[in-house]
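Q: Given only this backbone (339 positions), what sequence would you predict?
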């Protein structure tokens, strides 16, 4: 199993750079979560750990210590630039050459990200950053556009472009470690050892328990969270029996419910292009009109689709946006569609 460590820059009390109504910490997390999703949906043979998967404060030392202790094979730190300029650049530690392992990995990452990101290429650079210096494995730090540059910031507000940036990172990682593609994206069969006879790329260490699987995708594997997931997939009265865990594993991998309760199963929400704006609410306030301070613009993007991260109130779902986790109202009187 290749161990990939994703480090969304900043977080919690450290916003990182700010500009054009964006905070770096939210954009880096959105990109990192997308990288994780793409890798887990399309590739196999890897494990992912994240320095943070929520808007939390994590020190630089805690990040590199965590990656070092875990024994990561690659440390990828994701940032947004600021301070005058435009475009994409990436860094390896100043003591390293482009000919070494870290340099070769970076070359591949650089090529794949530039292919996808729709950002000007500012080149391959070196610096003595903490995460590059204190990590004990090859490490890269990517600076994905300038938050204080109007055109770059406009791109960073587009979910589609964040997805492209994430795709570039994911393809780079897959190429560096020659991860094999899953035969059918999201299908549970690619984890089923009986279906993998003859496939040379499969690691010997199969993921067979729901706990292992949740850990491998960096999700909370506690009983409480499994019970919550079980509910969301329509598995009633979850007590953690082997049969329920098998059911839950299948459901979580495929994104499909274990029964026909399609309403509970919907995991994504689509806001159609016919909607010019869609109010969002910070997650710590009641989602009523007066508490909305920012809107999405589905019409500007030909519609927007988000993963449903939680359903804190009836007809209210939590999604990850360029401004962090937000709640939106998706009641039957709106044109939102569950996918
Ligand atoms: Zn940063």
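A: Predicted residues:
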């Amino acid at each position: 199993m290749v161990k990939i460590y994703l480090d969304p820059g900043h977080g919690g009390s450290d916003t990182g750079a700010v500009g054009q109504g964006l905070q770096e910490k939210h954009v880096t997390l959105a990109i990192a979560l997308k990288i994780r999703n793409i890798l887990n949906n399309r590739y196999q043979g890897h494990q992912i750990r994240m320095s943070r998967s929520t808007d939390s404060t994590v020190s630089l030392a805690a990040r590199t210590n965590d990656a070092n202790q875990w024994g990561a094979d690659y440390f990828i730190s994701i940032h947004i630039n600021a301070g005058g300029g435009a475009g994409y650049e990436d860094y390896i530690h100043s003591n390293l050459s482009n000919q070494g392992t870290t340099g070769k990995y970076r070359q591949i990452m650089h090529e794949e990200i530039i292919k996808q990101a729709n950002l000007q290429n500012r080149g391959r650079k070196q610096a003595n950053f903490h995460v590059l210096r204190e990590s004990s494995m090859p490490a890269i730090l990517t600076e994905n556009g300038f938050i204080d540059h109007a055109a770059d910031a406009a791109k960073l507000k587009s979910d589609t472009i964040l997805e492209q940036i994430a795709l570039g990172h994911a393809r780079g990682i897959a190429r560096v470690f020659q991860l094999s593609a899953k035969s059918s994206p999201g299908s549970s069969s690619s984890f089923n050892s009986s279906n993998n006879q003859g496939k040379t790329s499969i690691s010997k260490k199969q993921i067979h328990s729901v706990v292992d699987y949740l850990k491998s995708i960096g999700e909370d594997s506690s009983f409480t969270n499994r019970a919550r997931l079980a509910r969301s997939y329509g598995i009633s009265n979850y007590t953690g029996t082997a049969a329920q865990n098998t059911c839950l594993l299948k459901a979580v991998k495929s994104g499909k419910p274990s029964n026909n309760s399609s309403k509970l199963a919907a995991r994504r929400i689509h806001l159609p292009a016919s909607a010019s704006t869609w109010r969002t609410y910070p997650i710590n306030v009641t989602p009523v009109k007066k508490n909305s301070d920012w809107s999405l613009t589905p019409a500007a993007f030909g519609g927007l689709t988000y993963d449903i991260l939680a359903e804190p109130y009836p007809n209210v779902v939590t999604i990850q946006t360029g401004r962090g986790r937000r709640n939106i109202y998706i009641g039957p009187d709106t044109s939102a569609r569950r996918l």
